[in-house]
Amino acid sequence: MTKYINMFGGIQPVPFLRNKYDIYELFVESCIELLEDEQREGNELEKWTKITNYKKIFTDARLQSKRRIIDGEPGYGKSTLALQITQDWCRKESPMTKFDVLILLRLRELRNAPTIYSAIRKFLLPKDTTLTEDDIKGILNSSSTVILLDGYDEYPERGNKNTDIEHIISENMFQQHEVILMTRTSCLPTDFSRDTKRIRLTGFDDAARDRYIRNVVARGDYDRADEIHRFFRENPVSDDFSKIPLFFVMISQMVQRNQKFQNLNTVTEFFRHVVRCFHSHEEIRAGHHEKKGELDHTKLDRIAFEGLSGNSQELSWKKKDLKCKIGHNLYLEYVRIGFLIEEDYFDYDALEYKTETRFCHKLFAEWFAAQYLAKQIARPNVNFKQTNKTQHDFLKSLNPHDVHYMYRYACGLNPEAAVKIIEHLGKSRDYDEYTLLCISEWGGNLEKVSSTVFRLCLRNIKIKNTDSLLLRTSTVELIKFASSQKIPLCCVELLNCLDLASLLTTNLPLKSPDLSLPVMTTLKKLVILEDGLEITEGGTHGMLDYTSKCHALQELEFHWCIFPRYVQVAESLSALLLRGVKVYTDDGRRLPERGEPVPS
Length: 600
Fold this sequence. Notes:
CATH superfamily of the largest domain: P-loop containing nucleotide triphosphate hydrolases
Domain NACHT: 69-216
Protein name: NLR family CARD domain-containing protein 4
Radius of gyration: 26 Å
Number of helices: 24
Shape: globular
Helix content: 40-55%
CATH architecture of the largest domain: 3-Layer(aba) Sandwich
InterPro entries: NACHT_NTPase, P-loop_NTPase
Structural class: alpha/beta
Pfam family, one: NACHT
Oligomer: single chain
Number of domains: 4
Number of strands: 17
């Protein structure tokens, strides 16, 4: 219990601030969803359903299982949630009272640990404990136990099927215990039990952001809370970050300390400003009255890039080795600033504690790695043809799902690199979202990447309600460009993102400020999915009037939409049918012609 109290009692929400807080002072729930049983991975229409709070993980009947996976993007609060659950158990709060034992292991610490029992003994028990591994095994076997495995994406032996951790995940070990695995969405285990329940963190919504500002940052100061709220309203780009708890916490704390974020339109501009804030705060703390020049971090950039490359990422290094590679001065400076963090770990081979160093967060590793990537890709002799094997392998070593911020930073840092990265990503339909985000970072003329635009338009273009504002905006700009240049659009899918209250306008309005789709004159197929939302008669007419103006349209599909039972059908539907446009609901039935009831 002492180990856990130290864990959740010494949290630094912003690396360069030395203040530490208890988890109960900082914890604000992000949105949580569960994957419905009848939907499995790979389904285009995966059914994710919101649950009201994190305690439902243990009480919701749909999540009853011995195995659960909680995934989320970097910075979405997986580790914070693990600490909150642990604190609930320590305080004997429901529903954690049903467990006699709670085990929380940070998997990045389990380098070469021979067994999970040795890891528990080494990392959770006092150094002078008399308990043996057999004792620990006996206690677990005779107790109601829940095991939290935090950071599978940072586990040094991820994928090694012979480890206890992998046996636990596949339910070949600890079948009687409840196990929760925390990992990044891009690093799900490949061999988890069929009975495993999937849960994901989707970040802060408006209510969570408001709670954090009022309860954690402003602490009753309404004027300060209004100032922070005003910042987020006046800076639309912040939408991309404010859903990510880590970024939202950083921005709120910096705004609260009068460190202004103005005219920031991209992820790159934002993160560059964050880095400057780290530097300026250290200068103030150290008493420097003049701005210091930034030290050369080229060697660290390359180390970060190489650490993020390949299937087995290396995101921590032995302290002595890293200091030797990047230089004593830079190492000490970045530890002081907060970019780098030192941690002690137990070396099972040497049977002693050693110190390793890592970035304060993976998103910072991607920032420094992007400096190296941008410089390399911008070189004139670099291209991505198969004949240039060296450069092909250079990018092939990166998994865009795992390092998309690195790609985005690089595109914002160097326009020449951006064009090549966009062309590279655009060759695979698996990376369409990242291609669009990179286009947003770049901000250049789409004619320079026309071949990529053509490829994107030949695929299904999706706009979802869960997309960030930057992604939605970039997608709309692509569609506008395609329409203006008469580039055929194969299919556009709109998933829970229509502003149905404004459907009587000329354009197709989206649930975003000042964002709408123009008439898509080259569109062949439009799919509209509104999850159980009732569409009024006016909304029905609005959608049909809009689609009747899409002159190349061949198919119109509605999924999960609830139409009025009877509608006085407008001429727009007749016009669509006369052109041979196929109009269907999700059960395969067509919409009615004039005077017929609409299927309910």
